[in-house]
UniProtKB/TrEMBL annotation, chain B:
Organism from which the protein derives: Cryobacterium flavum
Chief subcellular location: membrane
Transmembrane region(s): 57-75, 87-107, 112-128, 140-161, 168-187, 207-229, 260-281, 287-307, 314-333, 339-358
Domain of life: Bacteria
Protein name: ABC transporter permease
From TrEMBL, chain C:
Chief subcellular location: membrane
Keywords recorded for this protein, A-Z: Cell membrane, Membrane, Transmembrane, Transmembrane helix
Membrane topology, from the record: Multi-pass membrane protein
Subcellular location: Cell membrane
GO CC terms in record: plasma membrane
InterPro entries listed in its UniProt record: ABC_transp_permease
Gene Ontology terms, MF aspect: transmembrane transporter activity
Origin organism lineage: Bacteria, Bacillati, Actinomycetota, Actinomycetes, Micrococcales
Superkingdom, natural source: Bacteria
Regions that span the bilayer: 32-56, 62-82, 89-109, 115-133, 140-159, 179-201, 232-253, 265-285, 290-309, 315-331
CDD domains according to UniProt: TM_PBP1_transp_AraH_like
Protein name: ABC transporter permease
Organism, as annotated: Cryobacterium flavum
TrEMBL record, chain D:
Segments forming domain ABC transporter: 22-266, 271-521
CDD domains linked to this entry: ABC_Carb_Monos_I, ABC_Carb_Monos_II
Keyword annotations from UniProtKB, A to Z: ATP-binding, Nucleotide-binding, Repeat, Transport
Domain of life, per lineage: Bacteria
Provenance organism: Cryobacterium flavum
Keyword Repeat: yes
InterPro entries, sorted: AAA+_ATPase, ABC_carbohydrate_import_ATPase, ABC_transporter-like_ATP-bd, ABC_transporter-like_CS, P-loop_NTPase
Name under which the protein is recorded: Sugar ABC transporter ATP-binding protein
GO molecular function: ATP binding
Length: 360, 368, 339, 522
């Protein structure tokens, strides 16, 4: 006969779970990008701190793989505390549903449908968390705009075209330029799919197209920026072009510090993958052990934007401490002390609901 | 027996008659007719063959010329020396990989493992060279070991394909993941390895004697590839296998060894491409080869090498790579939005193959 | 005609074939390539069950089945195309485009939407087939080209973002949320299609003609088989199956995006078809074993996770297992030469 | 030259003193339970041309494949030049000096003539050095030399795909004799039905060359054309059911005797009563002024029900293209083909079949049958309606239908569920015929070399079947292998030369001499 399906019976359990029964699960999009590797690092640090076993899921860039691997873990009857860096927004409802049926707790990072809110889905979907893309884009735009003295031409490398993360950053960057740097012209956008190699190629083509008209380059993440930097270096243009991007990978830190290419990198927004995973997991963990009751939280604590730090070469020194060997462990120590929303440098700055895109 | 005697005698009458006739024919054919007839036919055949050998590349060249013409009208920077050098740099790695892919396709097989092999080789190479993670700097040995990794993957593909008779499509698809897996495991969880050797940084796009270094490498590989295909046993047997493996076997030719060798060569060239891509990007990444497969295979096909094997060549593939690289570059230079680029490329691919096939359409033709 | 029938029945009795020795039982079941995929799937399953008993107990089977649904649907379409000796590299892109169209249209036209989507995807497939049949170009290159076109259409149609089903999504959603034996309807949809295709191939003139094309197209042409129409039909079926896969995607996710769920199913679906015993050179296919091919392809990544293989090693294991499974299940009886 | 010998219990008593070029002693080979070759013993001397004949499936090719290293023998010994050999593969046989022209043409059509000829030359000895590098100049020279040896003037640089069938066969022979380069011995050249796919006029050239081969080495020659065997060979050996049952000098046997030895019965061929066109009947197929540029021009032919119309011509005469146009398989530029009253410019195969035309192509394996399908499915492939209800097939009815045809045409083995490729050539041909006979509406049957590769016994049964179809009121258009075949079976003969009709004969009134016909062909 017809029954309800997809992995176990629907429980939607609430009520605290004993710590011994818990498993931490961190799901990342791949294990080859520094950001996702940092995700794993943070999860490991928290696992050690809380003394709870950890499982890592590698989605291999595929929604289907992500979902089925998550279900595979849930099916083993474990009570999970989960952090998912979703491959696509549309994966979120399915994952949340599966976790709910298995009586686990999940925090989602970066991508979810705009109309799918934690408070509508019950306590098992503890929180949705991200760094606001619009703010990040604005940060970068300011850095480039100021470095160019408010005049010049810029090219942009968005990520995958249908990615919200990329789209919000693009929107923020464009809005800031439009509003505050009217003399800076955006020459062209070439979606480079978060792929350093493609950004490298696209850079070469745009250099061929615009030559030394290009004064600034923006990339939606540091991976693509590394590809772009190399292309401009090869073309001998590095010294006269300014770069800004999101992520501040440790490699970027090094380049900024060295003053690479006549201080080519002028602005970065800072976040660390280990912070995201640790915050996400810890939020879910608190809900699991009954420390917090999600339904009693204010909405902005369940759909949250974390602080965007705009890093410039001058302020770079302040961030060195987040890349030491013990940085993840230190952060986790602070996190457990101050709670998910108030740990420097990733403090909650507000939110609730989808990001509002600036009007164009 | 008796009842049949009349019949048998008629048969032998016929036989004798036919015998006589044949003598006549044989004499006629032996003298006079044959040699002139053969000579006339032969000269016709040669002319046709020479023309046919040129016709397809010619239409490709025309297509290339048209593209170049259109793009140079759309953007005057298209035809500048710096952009042409840029196009050559971008085509170098696909060219190197495509030489191997052409050999594999001439066998009638396919190699999908390109990106995996590139990742594994590039990662091995950079981790054993001077890089930002420190570790061993083995100098030239890094090249040897990295290409050794590629060779092992290629030989493994070849052996599984030939000995276990698994279709190359699946073997190399699996090897794609395996190569990616090797790269991922080598990469571990540490920082991105960056190239430290200042001499190598940017080497691929540096210009020597008017052309980018990586393009010189590609030229060398193309030259070697053409030589192998034209004038070595491996090359000729590759073509023979593509034509008919049954015949190759019954002729006692080393089908097994040649197939393994071709997969090994292809993997080595992918590996070389992986190292150059790593140099080009200056960073080690398991996905350093991303997107290369989807330039290389269409390039081979557009070049007119048959996926069934046996027909085609490396120079045509070179034209195919140029066509796609120029297309890619030209679309960006003429300001086509990135969303539409895959559609334009796809449409041109379809148009190219339809155009090429149109004249040869025949109701009895089998298109797979 | 009736004269022939009479004669046939008269003769049939005395000429009954003397049994050529007892056939081994595997052969009677249709040979290794018919049961191989089932055996391999079960073998992997047993290994997983032994290593992680909790996984099977916790509805692991239902998870495998539900995550194999889109792969299965695409693999079935692919198998039909492979059967006529071609390949369809665009079917996953068509499926995703179908999902996007469904998400866009479910709101405005409600119940009509799945029909429109299936019609559209079938038409897309048919266009591939028409170009293939009438321009006589190799399918590999052709569908590689149309793949790019469909991807771009998907990107533009979706407005470069995730498209959510605005309303009327319940009935489609229920395909995933309700099911039989704890397995969602999307999977049973695949099973149903497999059975239908199996009947088509085994018991109809159309199926016989398609198989003849795959085995020897020239001979099929000379036997007055409508080779062109049948090839168009094979591609149209691939498009139709892709449309169903699109519906399955919406049923599962409630939304679609050009790089989201379903965007990377092309190669797994081909692998599923081949593991299911389909010959890559045409003429050999059994839709019923393709079901197990799809289940195996879905099982491998789940199994690596369930068994607890290190995340960084999973892609290596996946590749190796796919090769091994095909090596074990492939039908080599067609010819000893594999390309 | 030929030593006297007799067969005694399968053992050959050889009384010559010089070692035989080839000596087989009780050689056997089985495929599973099927004993394809049983205890065959045979001696071949230098400079001898041996004719090997036998029914389809008698084991000839199997025997030869053991000599060429493609199969390994199960029992017995094979000795070459007095030394016992164990071939592990074709390469070993080549080294021993055995060159083969296989039954199926085995040239690489995408490579040059030179490469095809030199393909077996070991590395380091010919145009390929020890490292596998080619010396093209040397390669072409060697190949030209090999071609010279058999009197061919083909350009070694030509690609094989550009050659005609005869020329290809010449290349195969040149390749076979190139084994002398590999072995430094006089070659033994094996020719497995080299003439089967050739027109009779073309075989004349080949026959001359084969006869000349005895100056270079020894030859084993397989053919189903007994007259050919009689002309070319010194000695004939006959195989039946895997056994070697006779070994005679040609001077001691007649064609009739060979036929009886092969088939195990007398020939049943009956002289046909030819009928004239009845005044009332109208043609079923009417070709009018059919023209295709470069192929044929102004061809007009009428085919009447109940009559066999044979078209004679050499390979360039365009007769194949004409009949393929009738079947809708090839297009034409002008003129018309009308079938049973229907006349249209664009004729497709499907339309032709719907109008009641059937076609047995010359290329049986590639065009005539789906080898990997069971025989019964092949039979119903064209007219599935005979075993179907609507779109659904009825496997039982299909099987009983197939059984009926197996019985009627004496197709052996009587196993319609076996893959068609596993039947012998003659039986495959009968299945292909059955495919068309299975139509309820067969008005005309076009037969392109229907007897190609069939042994004389099988040829008789197929011929008998063609006659009975014809007697049933079907028009037959036949492209025969030989003039003989045409005179044997046809009611009308049309001769074509260079794409034009050069002669029309109604055998009811006319009685053309063979030479007469031949003259019009050449
Ligand atoms: N590859 C094979 N596998 C199994 N049986 C085979 C194979 N090849 C040949 N045979 C068997 O060997 C027997 C002899 O076949 P062979 O091909 O030698 O006949 P033949 O004399 O060459 O016939 P033909 O005149 O038609 O060429 C056949 O009856 C067949 O059953
Ligand atoms: N793979 C196979 N398995 C079993 N029997 C086979 C196989 N291949 C061939 N045979 C057998 O070999 C015999 C002869 O086959 P062969 O291919 O030589 O046909 P043939 O009679 O020579 O055809 P043709 O006269 O057209 O050349 C047949 O009786 C057939 O049953
Ligand atoms: Mg034979
Ligand atoms: Mg034969």
């Amino acid at each position: 006969g017809c029954t309800s399906t997809a992995g176990g019976t629907a429980t939607g359990s609430s009520g605290p779970i004993a710590k011994e029964d818990l498993v931490l699960v961190a799901s990342v999009i791949n294990t080859t990008n520094p950001y996702f590797i940092a995700n794993i690092e943070g999860a490991k640090a928290l696992s050690k701190k809380l003394d709870i076993p950890l499982e890592i899921i590698d989605s291999q860039g595929s929604s289907q793989t992500e979902i089925s691997k998550i279900q595979a873990i849930l099916a083993q009857g474990k009570k999970v505390v989960m952090f998912v860096n979703t491959v696509a927004s549309s994966d979120t409802p399915t994952i949340v549903d599966a976790v709910k049926r298995a009586g686990g707790y999940v925090s989602i990072w970066w991508n979810k449908p705009d109309n799918f809110e934690p408070w509508d889905a019950g306590d098992n979907f503890v929180a949705f968390q991200k760094h606001a893309g619009v703010d990040s884009g604005r940060c970068n735009a300011k850095a480039i705009g100021d470095a160019l003295g408010g005049k010049g031409n810029v090219i942009m490398f968005p990520g995958v075209e249908d990615s919200t993360t990329s789209a919000t950053r693009v929107a923020g960057f464009e809005a800031e330029m439009r509003e505050n740097y009217p003399d800076i012209k955006i020459l062209e956008k070439q979606a480079s799919n978060w792929d350093p190699q493609l950004a490298n190629q696209n850079s070469k083509d745009l250099i061929a197209k615009y030559g030394d008209q290009i004064n600034g380059v923006w990339s939606a993440d540091d991976g693509m920026q590394l590809g772009a930097l190399q292309a401009f270096d090869d073309a001998g243009l590095l010294n006269s072009v300014k770069f800004a991007s999101d992520g501040l990978y440790p490699d970027t830190v090094k380049l900024m510090k060295e003053g690479y290419g006549n201080n080519a990198i002028v602005g970065e927004t800072f976040h660390r993958g280990y912070m995201a995973s640790a915050i996400g997991l810890y939020t879910a963990y608190q809900a699991a052990i009954g420390e917090i009751v999600p339904s009693e939280l204010p909405k902005d604590k369940r759909d949250s934007f974390f602080d965007i730090k705009c890093v410039t070469p001058e302020t770079l020194g302040d961030y060195a401490k987040y890349d030491t060997d013990t940085a993840a462990a230190d952060f986790v120590d602070n996190l457990v002390e101050t709670g998910p929303w108030d740990t420097e440098p990733a403090t909650l700055v507000g939110g609730g609901g989808p990001e509002v895109l600036p009007k164009s | 027996m008796a009842g049949n005697s009349r019949i048998t005698s008629t048969r032998s009458v016929y036989a004798r008659r036919i015998f006589m006739v044949h003598k006549v024919v044989a004499e006629q054919v032996a003298g006079g007719i044959s040699t002139t007839a053969i000579r006339i036919r032969e000269s016709g055949i040669e002319r046709r063959a020479r023309f046919r050998g040129l016709a397809e590349p010619l239409s490709l060249l025309v297509a290339l010329a048209v593209l170049i013409g259109v793009f140079s009208l759309l953007n005057e920077r298209f035809l500048t020396a710096s952009n042409l050098q840029n196009v050559l740099t971008q085509s170098a790695i696909p060219l190197i990989v495509a030489v191997g892919a052409t050999l594999v396709i001439l066998l009638g097989s396919i190699d999908l493992s390109v990106e995996g092999v590139m990742g594994a080789t590039g990662m091995t190479w950079i981790l054993l060279s001077a890089n930002s993670r420190g570790g061993a700097d083995l100098g030239p040995w890094a090249w040897v070991i990295a290409l050794g990794v590629a060779l092992v993957i290629g030989v493994a593909s070849g052996l599984i394909f030939t000995a276990l008779k698994v279709p190359s499509f699946i073997v190399t698809l699996g090897m794609w993941y395996v190569g990616l897996g090797i790269a991922t495991m080598l990469y571990g969880t540490d920082l991105l390895p960056r190239l430290e050797d200042e001499g190598l940084k940017g080497w691929t796009s540096r210009i020597s004697f008017g052309l980018p270094n990586s393009f010189w490498v590609a030229l060398l590989v193309i030259g070697l590839g053409i030589f192998v295909l034209r004038s070595t046993r491996i090359g000729r047997v590759t073509l023979a296998i593509g034509n008919s493996e049954t015949i190759v076997r019954s002729a006692g030719l080393p089908a097994f060894r040649v197939k393994v060798a071709v997969f090994a060569i292809a993997a080595l060239l992918s590996g070389l491409g992986g190292i150059l891509a790593t140099v080009q990007l200056d960073i080690g990444s398991p996905t350093v080869g991303s997107g290369v497969l989807f330039i290389v295979i269409p390039a081979v096909v557009i070049g007119g090498t048959h996926l069934g094997g046996g027909k085609g060549g490396i120079l045509r593939t070179v034209l195919g790579v140029f066509l796609l690289t120029i297309l890619n570059n030209g679309l960006i230079l003429s300001g086509v939005e990135s969303s539409y680029q895959s559609a334009v490329t796809g449409a041109i691919l379809v148009a190219a193959i339809v155009f090429a096939a149109w004249s040869q359409r025949d109701r009895l033709q089998v298109a797979k | 005609m009736s004269k022939i029938d009479n004669e046939a029945t008269k003769i049939a009795v005395p000429v009954l074939i003397p049994a050529r020795g007892k056939l081994p039982s595997v052969k009677r079941l249709g040979g290794w390539h018919a049961i191989g995929p089932i055996v391999i799937f079960l073998a992997i399953l047993v290994v997983v069950a032994i290593l992680t008993p909790a996984f099977i107990g916790g509805g692991g089977l239902a998870i495998i089945a539900s995550s194999s649904a889109p792969i299965l649907l695409l693999a079935l379409g692919q198998a039909m195309v492979l059967n006529v000796g071609s390949i369809d590299l665009s079917n996953a892109a068509i499926g995703l485009l179908g999902a996007i169209l469904l998400a866009l249209t479910l709101g405005p036209v409600a119940g009509l939407s799945p029909l429109i989507v299936l019609l559209a995807t079938t038409a897309f497939g048919a266009v591939n087939g028409l170009i293939l049949a009438y321009a006589q170009v190799p399918s590999f290159a052709l569908t590689l080209g149309t793949l790019g076109i469909f991807q771009a259409i998907a990107l533009v149609a979706s407005g470069r973002t995730t498209v959510y089903v605005s309303s009327n999504g319940e009935s489609v959603r229920s395909l995933y949320e309700s099911g039989i034996a704890n397995v969602p309807m999307t999977f049973w949809m695949g099973v149903l299609l497999a059975v239908a295709l199996w009947v088509l191939l085994r018991y109809t003139r159309i199926g016989r003609g398609m198989t003849a094309i795959g085995k020897n197209e020239s001979a099929a042409i000379f036997s007055a088989v409508r080779t062109r129409s049948l090839k168009v039909l094979a591609f149209a079926l691939s498009g139709f199956a892709a449309g169903l896969a699109g519906i399955a995607i919406i049923a599962q996710a409630g939304s679609a995006s050009p790089t989201g769920l379903g965007s990377d199913l092309l190669l797994p679906a081909i692998a599923a078809a081949l593991i299911g015993g389909t010959s890559i050179s045409g003429g050999v296919v059994n839709p019923l074993t393709v079901i197990f091919g799809a289940l195996t392809v879905a099982l491998v990544p789940i199994a690596t996770t369930a068994v607890g293989i290190d995340a960084q090693a999973q892609s290596l294991v996946y590749g190796a297992v796919i090769i091994a499974v095909v090596a074990l299940t492939m039908s080599r009886n067609k010819s000893s030469i594999v390309k | 030259m030929v030593a006297a010998r007799q067969i005694a219990g399968g053992k050959v008593n050889d009384v010559t003193t010089t070692p035989a070029v080839l000596r087989l002693d009780s050689v056997s080979k089985s495929f599973g339970s099927n004993r394809a070759v049983r205890k065959v013993s045979l001696n071949i001397q230098s400079g001898e041309v041996i004719g090997l004949i036998g029914e389809n499936g008698a084991g000839k090719s199997t025997l030869l494949k053991m000599l060429s290293g493609n199969y390994r023998h199960d029992e017995g010994t094979i000795a070459v030049n007095g030394r016992e050999v164990q071939f592990r593969g074709p390469a070993d046989a080549l080294r021993a000096g055995i060159g083969v022209v296989h039954q199926e043409q085995s040239l690489f059509t995408n490579l040059t003539i030179a490469e095809n000829i030199e393909v077996n030359t070991p590395m380091g000895r010919g145009g390929v050095n020890r490292l596998g590098l080619y010396n093209w100049r040397r390669l072409y020279a060697d190949a030209a030399q090999a071609l010279d040896l058999i009197g061919s003037h083909l350009n070694p640089k030509t690609r094989v795909s550009d050659l005609s069938f005869v020329d290809r066969q010449m290349v195969e022979i040149a390749r076979a004799i190139r084994v002398s380069a590999a072995s430094h011995t006089t070659p033994l050249v094996i020719l497995d039905e080299p003439t089967a796919i050739l027109e009779r006029t073309e075989t004349a050239i080949l026959e001359r060359e084969i006869s000349k081969l005895r100056d270079i080495g020894s030859v084993i020659f397989v053919s189903h054309r007994l007259d050919e065997v009689m002309r070319i060979c010194d000695r004939v050996v006959v195989m039946r059911d895997g056994e070697l049952i006779a070994d005679r000098p040609v001077d001691d046997v007649t064609e009739e005797e060979l036929f009886r030895l092969m088939v195990g019965r007398e020939t049943h061929a009956a002289v046909r009563n030819r009928r004239s066109i009845e005044a009332t009947s109208s043609p079923i197929i009417s070709i009018h002024d059919l023209t295709r540029a470069g192929s044929y021009a102004d061809v007009s032919i009428d085919a009447y029900p109940g009559r066999v119309l044979a078209i004679l011509g050499t390979s360039g005469s365009g007769r194949e293209s004409v009949v393929r146009a009738v079947f809708g398989a090839e297009g034409f530029d002008s003129g018309s083909v009308s079938i049973a009253g229907y006349s249209g410019h664009q004729l497709s195969i499907k339309r032709a079949v719907d109008l009641g035309v059937g076609y047995v192509p010359a290329e049986r394996k590639t065009e005539g049958m789906v080898g990997e399908m069971p025989a019964d499915q092949n039979i119903t492939l064209t007219h599935p309606g005979s075993a179907a209800v609507g779109p659904f097939e009825l496997p039982r009815r299909r099987l009983s239908l197939a059984r009926m045809w197996f019985e009627k045409l004496d197709i052996r083995p009587r196993e319609p569920l076996h893959m068609l490729q596993d039947f012998s050539g003659g039986n495959q041909q009968k299945v292909v015929l059955a495919k068309w006979l299975n139509s309820s509406n067969l008005k005309a049957l076009v037969l392109d070399h229907p007897l190609r590769g069939l042994d004389p016994g099988a040829a008789e049964t197929v011929n008998a079947q063609i006659r009975s179809v014809c007697d049933g009121g079907t028009a037959i258009i036949l492209i025969p292998d030989t003039i003989d075949e045409a005179l044997d079976i046809a009611d009308d003969i049309v001769v074509m030369r260079d794409g034009r009709i050069s002669g029309v004969f109604d055998l009811g009134h006319d009685n053309p001499a063979t030479l007469d016909l031949l003259e019009r062909m050449l």
